[in-house]
Amino acid sequence: MGNATRTAPPRTGTLAAGVTELGEMAKLGGVVVWMAVRGPWDYWRDTRDQMFLILQQCWIPMAVSCTFFGLGAPGLQGGNIYALFGMPERLGSFFIMASIREFAPWVNAMVVAGVVGSAITADLGARRIREEIDAMEVLGVDPIRALALPRIVAVTIITGLMDIIALCFGLLGGFIAAVPILGANPWAFYNSLFANLTTPDIWGSVVKTTIFGLIIGVVCCYKGMYAKGGAIGVGRAVNQAVVVAFALIWVVNVVFTNILLGLNPEIQVFK
């Protein structure tokens, strides 16, 4: 009778568990930001090495992805619509919305999350199941400062900086679609692009992508540092980290874009 009335423990897939986990991730992010701005700043050597590693791993797949994504979806599809009205040159103004505001930051974040985020989760998860993190805590070393802080700062900074490269290759894909394929005048394409390009478009894109990097770093470090269940648990943590990072990026992208457009209504007027 007693066994029949016993309450089962909540499963990890429940809504309450998910909300609790998001709260723990937010707490980790707050702790890391406080450590980063408070100092001491002895973590910069590890951060620099992590940034170089991220750039080495990501810039080629990111450049290829942005170029062909820009060539395919907004380039050829959007360009064919403009060509119906005899103005393929106007594709330059369209790419401010399509590439600079939306898909270049998004593709950049997806590549970083898939390549670097999964590697961070796997690395920290392996350290957890080998009890290296437990040993650090016993020795009085803060694993958040030693392991999570340089990785999160590196992913945040380099993801924002790589957005500049992503924008360039995204616009390259649009140029290929407009000029060689659809026959647009190249100088008219440039004129349409720069006549509508504004400062809020650029800083909004970089700031948004930097926030994406912070989300990726926090989520992947949290999932790795608190992985459990052996090697299978580490694999599960990697999968969950990438999925959660993707979902949070999509939500933040919608919120940030609406705030940007609301605060700068003039960028919605195309010349």
Task: Please outline the helices and strands.
Layout lengths: L14 H24 L5 H41 L6 H39 L2 H7 L4 H39 L4 H11 L2 H27 L4 H34 L8
Organism: Nocardioides aromaticivorans
Keywords: Membrane, Transmembrane, Transmembrane helix
InterPro entries: Permease_MalE
Task: Provide structural commentary.
- This protein is mostly helical and 271 residues long.
- The protein has one domain.
- The chain is built from 8 helices and no strands.
- The protein has helices at 15-38, 44-84, 91-129, 132-138, 143-181, 186-196, 199-225, 230-263.
- Mean pLDDT is 88; it is low at 1-12.
Defining key terms:
disordered N terminus; 8 helices; 271 residues
**Which consecutive residue ranges, at least 5 long each, have pLDDT under 50?**
1-12
Distance between the termini: 76 Å
Instruction: State the helical fraction.
Output: over 70%
- Average pLDDT across residues? 88
Radius of gyration computed on alpha carbons:
22 Å
Biggest pleated sheet: none
The domain tally reads: 1
**What overall form do the CA principal axes indicate?**
elongated
Q: Return the string of H and E elements.
A: HHHHHHHH
The tally of beta strands, per DSSP, is 0
Annotation field: number of helices: 8
Percent of sequence in beta strands? under 5%
What structural class do you assign from the helix and strand content? mainly alpha
TL;DR of this structure?
The protein has one domain. The chain has eight helices and no strands. Helix 2 packs parallel to helix 5 and helix 3 packs antiparallel against helix 5.
